[in-house]
């Protein structure tokens, strides 16, 4: 991968800051949806199974965008797809807070998911280039800004709703902040060109890339469960108000942020294997506490977030070191497998919750986190 504009070495700090801002925007926009889920469900008057099908559209949009976003960014540069994806997010968020038709809301979630998928893959390609040029670990730090954006997005929407603003008015504030941040970062986004413009659009994952992709499937499913279902869990199972429903996801994001901001140093100190093993066990324990111990439910979201904080950035670093596939195609491949967790996860959780309860659905996610622990040595050695 060659760097066309601006030179990372000549503008290291501005480019690093711009990359961090883009990660913040992605988390900010995505988490703004979490407190709106109970309002959407009430507005449409649907049950958990129908809501799960609606959530499926977000994952479909992301999954469809990923195979196109990676080669687009690799060949033509990261700047244009990042700006285009952010504009899609800013345009669809108000519709998610306003539409009262299930088909129209489904189409909007499809576009919203496509924007998230495009932004996610493109910002990670840029982050890999910046990290490689710097010669030191930076991926966890960038993902820390994504989590920081998650705190800000969920927290700000929850605060605005608590101040009696309507969901639409609250989202318009979010959109204004999003476009202001994009304007600040746009000038320092990189134009990257690939060394092989004839590279295929997609390569079937194999070897270590496939194993990492399957673990990312579980971790994306877990994060998707927190995004789409944590507010409903707190409001329906523990009786919190709708305005406070986003608190669990905000706490989850707080602990993820703290974990990721110190993640690079921690991984260097204890190693990838111990981080992957300990983090997945910690995340599983936090989820089980949320289910079984009401008195510590909010604390359990902190534990879950801290445990899961560095798992995805760690796995991305593992993929960047492999030689089976070009890094940008490997990233697209594992993102495709991982995002299928967002594609199938919310719908699956919705059906399980409809047949049993959210308790049982969350227990299933906790078991999957134990699978990550069992595979830690396989993918890190």
Pick out its properties.
381 residues, mainly alpha, Growth Hormone, Chain: A, two-stranded antiparallel sheet, 16 helices, 2 strands, globular, disordered N terminus
Question: Tally the helices: what do you get?
Answer: 16
Note the quaternary state here.
single chain
Q: Main beta sheet, described?
A: 2 strands, antiparallel
The overall number of domains is 1
Subcellular location: Membrane
Transmembrane segments: 21-39, 51-70, 105-130, 142-162, 168-190, 210-232, 238-261, 273-291, 297-317, 329-352, 358-379
Membrane topology: Multi-pass membrane protein
Pfam families: MFS_1
Task: Sum this structure up briefly.
By secondary structure, the protein is mainly α.
Textual characterization of the structure:
It is a multi-pass membrane protein. InterPro entries: MFS (IPR011701), MFS_trans_sf (IPR036259), MFS_Transporter (IPR051788). Its main location: membrane. Keywords: Membrane, Transmembrane, Transmembrane helix. It is a single chain. The protein is built from 16 helices and two strands. With 381 residues, it is an all-alpha fold. The protein has one domain: Growth Hormone, Chain: A (Up-down Bundle). A two-stranded antiparallel ribbon has the order 1-2. It is globular. Residues 1-11 have low confidence and may be disordered.
Task: Summarize the SSE layout with pairings.
Elements: E1 2-5, H1 12-32, H2 37-44, H3 48-76, H4 79-96, H5 102-134, H6 139-162, H7 167-185, E2 191-193, H8 208-237, H9 247-261, H10 263-270, H11 272-292, H12 297-308, H13 311-321, H14 327-355, H15 358-374, H16 376-380
């Amino acid at each position: 991968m060659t760097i066309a504009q601006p030179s990372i070495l000549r503008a290291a700090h501005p480019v690093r800051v711009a990359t961090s801002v883009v990660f913040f925007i992605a988390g900010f926009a995505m988490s703004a949806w979490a407190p709106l889920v109970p309002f959407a469900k009430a507005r449409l008057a649907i049950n958990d199974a129908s809501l799960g099908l609606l959530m499926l559209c977000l994952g479909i949009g992301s999954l469809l965008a990923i195979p196109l976003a990676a080669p687009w960014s690799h060949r033509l540069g990261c700047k244009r797809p990042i700006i285009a994806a952010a504009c899609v997010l800013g345009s669809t968020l108000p519709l998610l807070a306003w539409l009262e038709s299930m088909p129209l809301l489904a189409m909007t979630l499809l576009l919203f998911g496509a924007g998230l998928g495009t932004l996610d893959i493109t910002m990670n390609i840029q982050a890999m280039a910046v990290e490689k040029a710097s010669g030191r670990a930076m991926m966890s730090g960038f993902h820390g800004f994504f989590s920081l954006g998650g705190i800000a997005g969920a927290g700000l929407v929850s605060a605005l709703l608590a101040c009696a603003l309507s969901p639409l008015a609250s989202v318009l504030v979010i959109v204004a902040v999003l476009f202001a941040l994009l304007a600040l970062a746009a000038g320092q986004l990189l134009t990257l060109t690939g060394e092989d413009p004839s590279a295929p659009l997609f390569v079937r994952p194999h070897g270590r890339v496939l194993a990492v992709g399957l673990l990312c499937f579980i971790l994306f499913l877990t994060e998707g469960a927190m995004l789409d279902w944590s507010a409903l869990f707190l409001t329906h199972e523990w009786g919190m108000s709708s305005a406070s429903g986003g608190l669990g996801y905000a706490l989850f994001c707080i602990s993820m942020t703290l974990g990721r901001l110190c993640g690079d140093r921690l991984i260097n100190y204890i190693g990838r294997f111990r981080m992957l093993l300990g983090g997945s066990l910690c995340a599983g324990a936090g989820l089980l506490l949320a289910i079984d111990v009401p008195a510590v439910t909010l604390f359990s979201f902190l534990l879950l977030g801290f445990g899961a904080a560095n798992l995805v950035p760690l796995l991305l670093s593992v993929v960047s070191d492999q030689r089976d596939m070009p890094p940008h195609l490997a990233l697209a491949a594992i993102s495709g497998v991982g995002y299928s967790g967002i594609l199938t996860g919310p719908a699956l959780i919705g059906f399980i919750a409809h047949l049993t309860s959210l308790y049982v659905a969350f227990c299933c996610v906790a078991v999957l986190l134990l699978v990550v622990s069992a595979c830690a040595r396989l993918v890190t050695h």
